[in-house]
Design brief:
The protein has helices at residues 9-41, 44-68, 82-87, 92-103, 111-118, 122-128, 136-139, 172-175, 183-194, 214-223, 242-245, 253-266, 286-289; strands at residues 165-166, 224-225, 235-236, 293-294. The protein is mostly helical and 295 residues long. The chain folds into three domains: 77-134, no CATH class; 142-231, DNA polymerase, domain 1, CATH 1.10.150.320; 235-294, DNA polymerase, domain 1, CATH 1.10.150.320. The strands form two sheets. The protein has a two-stranded parallel ribbon. The chain has a two-stranded parallel ribbon with strand order 3-4. It is elongated and about 130 Å long.
Length: 295
């Protein structure tokens, strides 16, 4: 043990120098830390800047949180899905009440109707009702005196063909006199008419226009009809080729092949309604297809 504590003069000098260096570094750290702390306390400008930076970071965080929230766009409450209702804060029971009401072919026409049917709270209604968007004929109904009834009394006879307005010449304002047709629907009718050179072929094409219900179409026919139909080429159903059939709206090569195959099996069609028995035939479009065919 004694040999371990025996050092030369050079080793002793090194040990003392090392200890002095350690003490110097410790003192430098202690004084520097205290001086920095005092300088921070003595400069309120730095504290103010730090507080400003914190407020800016907090505001940016709040903006980001707000941006991540799901946005609500105007919608028709009659078509709320399960997911849409969930994001709006509705319960499953409230959504089921709405779907049950709509299944009975009834419509929600106001925010009050919506609350009476779904039983949502006033707080939820106040949040989502500003985004309700109902059809124009609900929000701005025309007086009944301006509309035309579907039925006529004994004192009012239906208009003759000559008295009706040509559907291919009617203006948007004239179409808007029909109860149930607003600015959008009238423009949609004219847009469909202008899509084809010459306009409508027949009144039945009104069924092709999106948004026109059967009731509104019947009201249109009271005052309007196609007097100058567009000239089209009609084909004999029992002699038309496949290339001729595919030029008809809603008939493709596959349906044309089935028509010719059915025609061969039947030794010719006896009626245009026999097309309903053709495989994959678009039954709902038969009235449009009949315009291009004859026997």
């Amino acid at each position: 043990m004694k040999s371990h504590f025996q050092f030369t003069n050079q080793q002793r000098n090194g040990i003392f120098l090392l200890l002095a260096l350690i003490v110097f570094i410790q003192c430098l750290y202690w004084f520097g830390h205290n001086i920095f702390s005092v300088s921070v306390k003595e400069t309120p400008e730095i504290t103010n800047q730090i507080n400003l930076f914190r407020k800016e970071v907090d505001s940016l965080r709040l903006v980001e949180i707000e941006n991540r929230k799901p946005k609500i766009y105007p919608f028709n409450p009659n078509y709320i899905t399960d997911y849409k209702g969930y994001t709006l804060g509705m319960t499953n029971e409230q959504i089921d009440r709405l779907h049950k009401f709509r299944a009975s072919n009834q419509w929600v026409n106001s925010a009050k109707d919506f609350q009476n049917i779904t039983k949502v709270s006033d707080s939820v209604l106040s949040i989502i009702s500003p985004y309700f968007k109902f059809p124009e004929w609900v929000t701005n109904p025309k007086p009944k005196s301006q509309g035309i009834s579907n039925t006529y009394s004994n004192s009012k006879k239906p208009k003759t063909f000559q008295q009706k307005i040509d559907l291919n010449l009617a203006s948007a304002k004239q179409l808007q006199t029909v109860y149930g047709i607003g600015e959008k629907l009238s423009q949609r009718i004219i847009k469909y008419r202008n899509k084809y050179k010459g306009g409508f072929i027949s009144d039945v094409q009104l069924n092709e226009i999106y948004g026109l219900t059967p009731e509104v179409i019947e009201r249109i026919k009271i005052d309007f009809t196609v007097k100058t139909p567009r000239v089209i080429k009609s084909y004999n159903l029992n002699s038309a080729t496949r290339d001729q059939l595919v030029t008809i709206q809603y008939i493709d090569y596959e349906i044309a092949h089935h028509i010719i195959e059915e025609r061969t099996l039947r030794d010719g069609f006896k009626s245009l309604d026999d097309l309903l028995k053709v495989e994959d035939f678009p039954i709902k479009k038969i009235d449009i297809i009949k315009l291009y065919l004859h026997l």
